[in-house]
Design a protein that fits this description.
The structure holds two protein chains of two kinds. Chain A is of the alpha/beta class. Chain A folds into two domains: 193 residues, 3-Layer(aba) Sandwich (Rossmann fold); 181 residues, Response regulator (Rossmann fold). Chain A contains twelve helices and 17 strands. Chain A has a seven-stranded mixed sheet. In chain A, helix 1 runs parallel beside helix 10 and helix 6 crosses helix 7. The longest helix of chain A has 20 residues. Chain A is globular and about 70 Å long. About 4% of the residues of chain A have low confidence. The model of chain B has no long low-confidence stretch (mean pLDDT 88). Chain B folds into two domains: 122 residues, Rossmann fold; 48 residues, Arc Repressor Mutant, subunit A (Orthogonal Bundle). Chain B is of the alpha/beta class. Chain B contains six helices and five strands, in the order βαβββαβαααα. The chains are: A alpha/beta, B alpha/beta. The interface between A and B is medium-sized, with 13 and 13 residues.
């Protein structure tokens, strides 16, 4: 018997400044859809309808409007940037549809018509800043792209660092897509900050990491770098040696050693080639489609209200580990992890949270007093306060 | 004392003066997400509860314009007005309440955090301004005393008005006191007081 077909909207930019990442996300969405369509676990199939806004912010609204009116989709998976999500939210709220959003973002949002599957700020930036304060330095040089992701991430860094008695040594911003980075690289090499926090995105970040690697090597310096967004396909674009050594916070790395992930990576490589790599956003897009399919199965319908109810607290053992939607804010319980990029374009995970962490999009439970313990500096050694972090390697 | 940041809203107390169940559930949900404490009050009941709150979310449409109910909400915690009707008569009524911020109905989850931050910032500024005005009023009140002290020093030391005032100001700075306080002492003792110890 032929299974009923449920239309599913996909909105990913196949050109424009973040086409590479959006392409990875689309590949993952299609892989998840194929797996669901071929599985006897689901008594329906997804009929994907792809719209390509070409990286143009205003085109997202048009794309979603067309998906809803012409293809009659109730559910849309997509968007990479916050700017594009903010375009889509009014239309999904007005028409009572659901946007399944894979990318991590800066938080301070909680729409009833969005399921936020990417990490909230308490799951990405907070663990990284905590690690920086505990193990590297409380003085940090910030560089980022001049938009909301950097502005808000830097605000959080500033707040935590200041409460720990540290300081931001500099905050340098580059326009999105800007690749002229030499003046900032020169400044960093001259000032030798103990650590650089990098919130640049796309080409700006790749150029910066290559240039800093070159200049620092020449000057005989090793300056640690931190990132909340770096992923495996980007390591490859940057180059094996220039991309190594970056401490990265993410809910997903290709190197996660779980049976679900090993199988997932094997399926991915069988589909896309042995030299292809997964990314946090790609994996998260896969999780989006799976969460949606499981919620539809549980609800017995694709109806938005029923699916939203069915998705709440429904645990899925995904490649990145257990994931479930917190109905309090429509964000997901995820396991934060920290890793170091190593030559060969991979990440070596050195810490993960004991259990999936409750999403806190407004950082309303951020306890600065608990994080902000001043580093005790004496005779060259830094006394680290004990903490609940568990080392996994 | 460090002033509370308007961005950290956890633990603050909100009073919801609303009727519409759908809107109440949206506001309640969002306040819960933000970690705020909530109490509720029926807008048609005359007297507002006595307990102290940090912010009032008030549905402007629920209170008749020609009634005394609005007066009860004046000069309490900052008010976030929920607005459905934009007629000048309703807005004039609203302006009397001096709302700290507002949201236009129908409500959605986005917007309330902004309204809260603006309201808390507004309330803090109002406290700061009141303190500043009180200080200025104190100064105005003591102008007469300062004037008398300047006259005293002019006579006693044979100085011009400018020099006499400069002497008082420098002495006040040295003793870490205010011009007004030192002036009061000058008037009391009939000349520059002979201080050996500094006051804190």
């Amino acid at each position: 018997m032929k299974k009923p077909s449920i239309p599913l909207g996909l909105v990913f930019s196949q050109s424009g400044p973040y086409a590479m990442m959006a392409g990875e996300m689309l590949k993952s969405a299609l892989m998840a859809i194929d797996e669901i369509n071929q599985s006897d676990q689901f008594d329906f199939v997804f009929a994907p309808h792809l719209r390509d806004p070409g990286g143009v912010v205003a085109a997202y609204h048009t794309a979603c409007d067309a998906l809803i009116r012409e293809e009659h989709v109730d559910h849309i998976v997509g968007c990479y940037t916050s700017a594009s999500r903010k375009q889509v939210i009014p239309i999904v709220e007005r028409t009572e549809r659901l946007l399944w959003h894979p990318a991590r973002y800066e938080g301070f949002e909680s729409s009833d018509n969005v399921i936020y599957v990417g990490a909230a700020p308490n799951q990405h930036v907070v663990p990284l800043v905590r690690h920086m304060l505990d193990h590297i330095s409380d003085e940090v040089f910030c560089i980022g792209s001049n938009y909301v992701w950097t502005w808000e991430t830097n605000r959080v860094i500033r707040e935590i660092v200041a409460s720990a008695g540290g300081r931001i040594l500099a905050e340098r911003l580059l326009e999105l897509g800007e690749t002229a980075v030499d003046h900032i690289v020169k400044e960093i090499v001259e000032r030798k900050p103990p650590v650089v926090f990098n919130t640049l995105v796309g080409e700006s970040s790749y150029s910066f990491m290559r240039a800093l690697h070159l200049a620092a090597t020449r000057a005989g310096l090793a300056i640690p770098m931190l990132s909340c967004s770096l992923c495996e396909p980007e390591l490859k674009l940057i180059g094996s040696s220039a991309s190594a050594g970056c401490i990265t916070s993410s809910a997903y790395f290709e190197s996660i050693d779980r049976p679900e992930n090993r199988a997932f990576v094997a399926r991915w490589k069988a589909r896309h080639g042995a030299d292809s790599n997964l990314s946090v956003d790609g994996q998260s897009t896969y999780v989006c489609v799976m969460l949606l399919a499981r919620a539809i199965r549980r609800a017995g319908s694709a109806d938005v209200a029923a699916v939203r109810r069915a998705a709440a607290n429904h645990r899925y053992d995904s490649p990145q580990g257990p994931v479930w939607v917190d109905p309090d804010n429509n964000h997901c319980f995820l396991t934060p992890r920290l890793a170091r990029s190593v030559p060969g374009c991979q990440f070596e995970i050195f810490w993960e949270a004991d259990a999936p962490e409750r999403p806190d999009p407004y950082l309303s439970n951020l306890d600065l007093a608990a994080i902000g313990t001043r580093l005790e500096k004496g005779n060259d050694t830094v006394t680290r306060r004990s903490n609940h972090l568990r080392v996994v390697k | 004392m460090t002033r509370p940041s308007p961005f950290s809203v956890r633990g603050r107390r909100a009073l919801m003066v609303m009727r519409d169940e759908r809107e109440i559930s949206i506001v309640r949900r969002q306040l819960n997400r933000l970690g705020m404490a909530i109490c509720e009050h029926d807008p048609n009941e005359a007297s507002p509860p006595d307990e102290a709150v940090d912010v009032i979310v008030l549905d402007a449409d629920t209170i008749p314009i020609k009634s005394d109910l609005a007066a009860a909400w004046k000069s309490r915690a900052p008010i976030i007005a929920l607005i459905g009707t934009e007629t000048p008569s309703r807005l004039k009524w609203l302006l009397d309440l001096q709302p700290a911020s507002f949201l236009v109905k129908p409500l959605r989850s986005a917007g309330l955090y902004t309204a809260l931050v603006v309201a808390f910032d507004f309330a803090q500024r109002r406290i700061d301004e009141a303190a500043h005005i009180e200080k200025l009023e104190d100064r105005i009140r003591s102008r007469r005393v300062v004037f008398a002290a300047v006259l005293q020093i002019m006579r006693g030391h044979g100085l011009s008005e400018t020099d006499a005032f400069a002497l008082i100001r420098q002495t006040a700075m040295r003793h870490r006191t205010t011009i007004e306080q030192l002036s009061a002492e000058i008037v009391a003792v009939g000349g520059m007081p002979n201080r050996t110890t500094r006051t804190a």
